Amino acid sequence: MTRILIGVWCAWILLAKAGDLLGDEPQPMDYAIVIHGGAGDDPAELSEEARVARTTALREALELGVEVLKGGGTSLDAVEKVIRHLEDEPQFNAGRGAVFNADGGHELDASIMDGRDRACGAVAGVRTVKNPISLARLVMTKTRHVLLASEGADRFAKEMGVELVPQDYFSTPFQRERLNRAKQAENSAKTDAHMGTVGCAALDRHGNLAAGTSTGGLTNKRFGRIGDSPIIGAGTYADNTTCAVSCTGVGELFIRNAIAYDISARMAYQNASLEDAVAHVIQKTLPKDSGGVIAVDRHGKIVMDFNTAGMARAAADSQGRFTVSLSAKE
Fold first, then answer.
1. Which of 65, 108, 122, 153 is nearest to 236 (CA)?
2. pLDDT tens column, 18-67
3. Would you state the pLDDT for residue 11?
4. Do 156 and 137 contact (CB within 8 A), yes or no?
5. Dihedrals phi, psi of 295, to nearest 5 degrees
6. Nearest to 243, CA basis, from 285, 289, 304, 195
7. How many angstroms separate the Cα of 264 from the Cα of each of 79, 233, 259?
8. If 113 and its partner were Cys, which of 47, 174, 238, 243 is the partner (CB 3.0–4.6 Å)?
9. 3-class secondary structure, 174
10. Is 197 known to be catalytic?
11. Which residues contact 63 (CB under 8 A, 6 or more apart)?
């Protein structure tokens, strides 16, 4: 009996020491990925056809990302592949289907960031690049710069041999109608509620985080306007020690408050959880109806939060999670 009690006591001591060593930190997942297709309108106001199209596109994009990560691919590859797919889907405001600016043209923005060393690349105001996210990655890997804009970015695209398209490739009747409505209500204080920016954040099997964002901006925006999507620290951020973040919403507000970086900083400096850091910026920093955030931390914890009527979003991880949602109730 005495030997049994001693054995139980020793086992308890070993478990206690193991708990001290492990602390309260969750055990990391093999991989995790989260994507968004923009925050804004209540999806209940969309047609059934539009809801099905968005849900299908998100599911397909998520499957592509999971395939990369499950096979041991990098988070950067997963982010780029997911966003390229969403850029090709006309129901989102990125690539094909991008909004019109005030001059009736399209100017596209994108950024991508590597959490390993905070390497990053971005493009703003490109007019002929089919997939801006891939050009942003080339800025990161093929230049010593972070952000190329307008004619310089388009010229770089030609040098890199990326696929170029005419301006009308990006145009859709839906976005043309929205431009006309916006011009008719130009003096109104009402903001553009439908925000179709796309983004992705991922953790791979190697423990590396990455994030990316791509957009056409705001309907009827002034020629040359740049929002938060190509601004590292505002619309996109990734750091292996904290998290990877992609934002969507009224870009000026995200720039003024450095939203993506602030989430990471709260985790680094205040030891806040990802959930608490995101909740703070969504509920306290940003005004209501301004946008949303997706993020994943270094353990694979996923957060999707927004203060609008809805946000197209999807998430998956190595423990079997696979969800696609549009409304706040889902």
1. 122
2. 444 344 556 668 999 999 999 987 888 888 998 999 999 999 999 999 99
3. 46
4. no
5. -160, 155
6. 304
7. 19, 9, 9
8. 238
9. helix
10. yes
11. none
Query: Which segments of 143-271 does DSSP mark as H helices, in order?
Result: 150-160, 173-184, 251-256, 259-270
Q: Look up residue 102 and give its amino acid.
A: A
Q: Given this model, what pLDDT does residue 46 score?
A: 82
The mean pLDDT of the chain is: 89
Tell me the percentage of the chain whose pLDDT exceeds 70.
88
DSSP secondary structure letter of residue 212 = E
The two most distant CA atoms of the chain are separated, in Å, by: 88
Taking the C-alpha atoms of 144, 145, 151 and 155 in order, what is their torsion angle to the nearest 10 degrees?
20
Location of structure tokens 């901006």? 217
Measured CA to CA, the distance from residue 95 to residue 133 in angstroms comes to: 9
C-alpha span between 229 and 243 (Å, rounded)? 17
- Token pair belonging to 199: 């983004």
Outline where DSSP puts E strands in 24-153: 32-40, 108-114, 119-126, 147-149
Domain 27-327 listed as CATH 3.60.20.30? yes
Closest listed residue to residue 61, CA positions, set 97, 36, 40, 29: 36
The SS3 assignment for 161 reads coil
**186 falls in which pLDDT band (50, 70, 90)?**
low
Residues in the chain: 330
94/229 Cα distance (integer angstroms)? 11
Q: Which residues pair with 292 in a beta bridge?
A: 248, 306
* Cα–Cα distance for residue pair 135/129, rounded to 1 Å: 8
pTM of the model: 0.89
Q: Pairing mode, if any, of strands 209-215 and 147-149?
A: unpaired
Residue from 74, 197, 248, 308 carrying the catalytic annotation: 197
What is the 3-state secondary structure of 264-292?
HHHHHHHCCCHHHHHHHHHHHHCCCCCEE
